[in-house]
Fold this sequence. Notes:
The complex is a heterodimer of chains A (568) and B (316).
Chain A: H1 6-22, H2 25-46, E1 57-63, H3 68-76, E2 83-88, H4 91-101, E3 106-110, H5 114-119, E4 127-130, H6 135-273, H7 292-299, H8 324-344, H9 371-402, H10 404-410, H11 415-445, H12 457-477, H13 481-498, H14 510-516, H15 520-533, H16 542-567
Parallel strand pairs in A: 1-2, 1-3
Antiparallel strand pairs in A: 3-4
Helix pairs in contact in A: 1-11, 2-9, 2-11, 6-7, 6-8, 9-11, 9-12, 9-13, 9-15, 11-12, 11-16, 12-15, 12-16, 15-16
Chain B: E1 10-19, E2 22-32, E3 37-41, H1 48-55, E4 63-68, E5 71-72, E6 80-83, H2 95-105, H3 110-123, H4 139-151, E7 157-161, H5 169-184, E8 188-192, H6 196-202, E9 205-210, E10 213-218, H7 220-226, E11 231-238, E12 253-254, E13 263-268, H8 274-283, E14 287-294, H9 298-306
Parallel strand pairs in B: 3-8, 3-9, 6-7, 7-8
Antiparallel strand pairs in B: 1-2, 1-4, 4-5, 9-10, 11-13, 11-14, 12-13
Helix pairs in contact in B: 2-3, 2-4, 3-4, 4-5, 7-9
Amino acid sequence: MHEPGFLRAIGLTAVNEARLLRHDPVALLMMLVAPVVIITVAGYSLGALYGGNRPIITVPVVDHDGGQVAAELMREGEPGSGLRFEAQTDLEAVRRGLILSGTSPLAIEVPTGTRQRILDGDDAQLVLYVDPARRLAANALELELGVLQRRAAARVRTQTRRELMISVRDLRHQLRRLAAVIRQERRRIRSRLAQAERDSIAAGQARLKTILERSKHETETALHLAQTGAADDLRGQLESRAAAFDGVRVYLQTLATTRQRWEDWLVDLQTLAASHGAKIPPPPELPAPPSEAELAKLTQPLVLPPMQLSLPPLIIPNVPASSPRDITRGDDDSLRTVVRQLRAAALPTLPGALDLVERPAIDGASMTVNAFNEYVPGFGVTFLLIGMMMGVALTLYDERDWGTLERIQAGGASLAGILVGKVFARVVVGIVQMIVLFGVGWLLFDISLGRQPAILLLPMASMALAGASLGLVIASIATAHDSVMPLGTMTSLALSAIGGCWWPLDFEPAWMRTVADWLPTTWTMQAFNDLMIRGAPPSAAIQPFLITTSIGFVLLAVGVSAGLRRRA
Amino acid sequence: MTEDSNLPALEAVDLHKRYGARLALVGVSLAVRPGEVVGLLGPNGAGKTTLLAILATVMRPDSGRVLIRGAPSETQRSVIGLVPQALALYPTLSAGQNVWHFARMLGLSRRAAQAACRQVLMDVGLAERANDPAHTLSGGMQRRLNLACGIVHQPAVLLLDEPTVGVDLESREHLLAQVRRLREAGSAVIYSTHYMEEAERICDRVFLIDHGQLIADGTVEELIVLAGGRTRIDLTFRGTLADGWPRSVSGSRLLPSARREGSISLELDSHAQVGDVLAEMRAAGTRVLDFNLHSTNLADAFAALTGRTLQDSPDA
Lengths: 568, 316
């Protein structure tokens, strides 16, 4: 017979703890049944926060705008949307009913002029009357309304864009027609301008002709006068020449007669002389030529008298500097440019809707969140903590009250071994508890067990160690059996709440998140979330495991040390 | 139990313990030999439980030391058996599981524990109830189980703190029988009790403790002698007795504190003087309605030594 050593004390204590637990239906109920009940209630109640199914909510809609906006809203509340809108008329009654009936956490008012403001391109607002006591539900509902709102806006924008495109097409068509009309008009104008040009030219020509004719007449008159004078002068000269020419003419006529006679004579001579031509006598003598003076007159140059012309000044009418044709051409180019620019102009486009599309941050992770993936580990950890704290702290006090601890110590068992044995037993029990809860969650609520379910044992074990060790610390702090329950419950609930077991850490203020960094629950929940919700690889659990385990060992050392000091 | 008989199985030397301003133990020293049953008597709050806790090593004295077989008690705890005044049992475990757990925690091997459990349950008369949860047993049975858990490892030193409080006669006999058996096996037993009759029946020696101090130590007979060893007769009568009565019974002494109207107590040298007292009362014309003869016991000894009864509280 020897005193039981440290390890033996651990083993025997652990076995006895399991035996005691087996005979404690209340503890088993708290460990296994209570968590399942709470998880079920929480999962179904709060599942909507995580996007889970919830009953259809009927949202009252008071339409003061009389029409289309409310109708659009009603249309969004179609089956499958999770929302149904109910037209109401009395806003005050709706606001009162919001609180009393409790069916919907908010009501919607469509203020007067909403549609017109939208049509005018101004911003419009729907008024949401929110039950402040149901702020969280209202937030969730507002998220859904936001989705409906974006969906409706996108639909309206698409419809508007479509109508705009049709308008643009019509506008372009009308523009083309306008261009054709303009071309036709341009041609008509050009034709008229050409006609006007021709008329103008004709008028000018007529006017010029008149001028020219008058000038011609005047010129001819002047020329006639000059010609008459010159003719008179020439006539005198010609009469003088004629007198001179008369003598010449007579001579020439005599000469011509003489020449004829000569010719005749010669012919007679030649005929008579036939063979004696040489014997022909000398020719007759020819008449004497005119005198030298008279001949000089004949050779005297004819002098024309200078003509005195007095012509009227030629007045030429003004002719337009640019021809009408040029002006028409210039307008035509400008118009064509304008039309071309209008055709080519980039029409202002309606800005597209900026919608939100969710994608998993981790490849392979699911976008649909099963609320039980959050609540099974969350409340599992909570009840694990409660079980660990009560299991260790309360049973220690039970044993003290029963006297069994004193008796065992009197037998030489190591108190440290007993304490560690209790913690060890509770760690095993806690792991089993978590396995059962996760199994129930998997069977009943289809929770995800991650890529490798066995890895979930790491956060389970580390959390069980930390919780059981904390129970030891609580036992050393508590002054009596009755103080264990409030102290342990308060600690368990605080650790669970701050550590993100009941809601995401993001809900908490910054200082609380700083505190949470030092809590085992925070790291455990991170591991569960990584493995179960984010679909992270098993390695994601290592860091939280190491940190939580370290916290657990520190707490264990503190608890054992405090227990030993307390005994001393 | 093959220890050196010259060495006390248990020895306490000058133990002091204080709870705040209150002295619980003041210089207590004692020694118990192997095979000796020592009674520890004292009123409530006299320091018995504190002394037992220190002897059992579950409490440390402010000063002084405890030796078991000559060695510091902290090194010899596996030979200590403690049967606390309150039940020290796991109520939801069966009787067998309780005994088994303590046997294992007290250092027995699995095989030895099996045999020891079986034997001790038979010894205390609970073999047939071995599988019943402790909380379903009667009060007396729970007391027996409480004893069984403390003696399952056959301790060399057994500390019993009022083990028979509230038990029936049968259970008390079982308990006392086990104490005797252990004594025969060589265990040193310290038996704290209120019951004088139990102490007188099984204790080899008795320590009287009061206000944290051992005021007397000896066999029952020695303590009675120490207290005077006289016989007392309590009389209830009708009539009157003259002053100086009884004159004819030599050595008798009227106890003034016990004189009331119609009753009287006398100390006598021996039982043989009872007839003389009754005869003198008849002669005095009084009618004896009842009388009760009372031999000197440990309570008388305690009262004689402390001026208080064992039922007094220490502050009374």
